Amino acid sequence: MPKLISRTPSYRLHRPSGQAVVTLSGRDFYLGPHGTKTSKAEYDRLVGEWLAHGRRLPSASAAQADLTVNELLLAYWNHAEAHYTRDGKPTRHLANIRDAIRPLRALYGHTRAADFGAAAFKAVRKAMIDAGLCRNTINGRLGKVRSMFRWATEERLVPADVLHELASVKALKRGRDGVRETEPVGPVPDNRVAAVLPHVPASVAAMIEVQRLTGMRPGEVAAMRGGDLDRSADVWSYLPARHKSDHLGKSRVIFIGPKAQEVLMPWLRADSDAYLFSPIVAVEARNTSRRAARKTPLTPSQRARKRKRNPKRPPRQSYDKNAYCQAVARGCRKAFPHQEEAAREAKAKDKRLTREQRRAAYEDLQAWRIEHRADLAEWHRRNRWHPNQLRHSAATAIRQRFGLEAAQTVLGHSRADVTQVYAERDMAKAYEVARLVG
């Protein structure tokens, strides 16, 4: 005969949030800040009701009535932390959820979740509009809020009519409600790509060339390893270990032709598991070039200096998408400088000036940057391109030469309408038709 369990559920600390928590019938209840009188009183109330119902929770309707939006957010966050992971690490979707629920928590955190309806949902949307977010971002974040309430409905945490009410709120339409629109992403001209190549590390320049020739995604080129390449044929095959649609069970094969092979050859390494493009190699190459360009000899103290055994920010084994984009952004700032900023920087580094004069020039530069921060940000935004635009460039070139289906296959899209977002139409064909027919 099994033992009867008479143990009372414990009052515990939920470390990520600092909240007190108690688990009753397999469900976590968050009680407020850990150690406070309020949280302990809430613990006593919930456990007392649970014991009074024969170690069972009260009816679902009673539980729904007491649940606040903050409690729902915390429960959903715990679910999302466990659900949206890859190889034991959180995916980017988790950060997107955090951004989506932030205005919801600020405006309606203490509201009962069962009372959150269409009017409150529109108020959250208005807060996003006032924050200057673009239409696509707002619609995406509102969709994540709906997903949270859909999960809560499945878990019987909120009544089903809450989700129906949120579903009745339509997505924002283009050109309405005064919402900011973003320009569609297009291809980047070859001359602007070529202008950046001398201003980025050799590894990043190779990544740019490979991406431009193959049309792969920024994250795919950053994650290339020798073991992921099949070099048995004249056209190589690259099977990324991870890609955008792998969680859907779809395979991804990227074919690499002779031009891209020529770019990759110097980066192939003996270790098949090593990443082809490594920040470690880039840092070593930069330090070597600096030592070679040094005009004054090392001092004895510099010669005796030892490398830190555990530096705070050691270079990583591989680039990720964000590091790759940041390297390209730095290259764009050097290739397309703001004229006045560049002149002030040159003055602050002019060796013909005294140390005091250079320091004063540097302080003037910093003050000028603060004063013109918005104008500088807009200048650099207009005069930069992103690695994903290389994918658009490749798609456009392939579509013009081989057609839409070929571009769809190369880019790895399951639907042609997605490819049309990347590959711009060949207006020369329409021009020729008009010349002959119109």
Automatic annotation (TrEMBL):
Q: Which InterPro entries match?
A: CB, DNA_brk_join_enz, Integrase-like_cat_sf, Integrase_catalytic, Integrase_recombinase_N, Tyrosine_recombinase_XerCD
Q: Which Pfam families match?
A: Phage_integrase
| Domain Core-binding (CB) residues, every copy | 67-153
Would the keyword DNA-binding be found if you checked this record's keyword annotation?
A: yes
> Keyword annotations for this protein?
DNA integration, DNA recombination, DNA-binding
- Location of the Tyr recombinase domain: 182-435
Molecular function (Gene Ontology), one example: DNA binding
**Known SUPFAM superfamilies for this protein?**
DNA breaking-rejoining enzymes
Top-level taxon: Bacteria
- Give the matching PANTHER family: PHAGE INTEGRASE-RELATED, PROPHAGE INTEGRASE INTD-RELATED
| Family according to the record | Belongs to the 'phage' integrase family.
Q: What is this protein called?
A: Site-specific integrase
Question: Per the UniProt entry, what species is this protein from, by scientific name?
Answer: Singulisphaera sp. Ch08
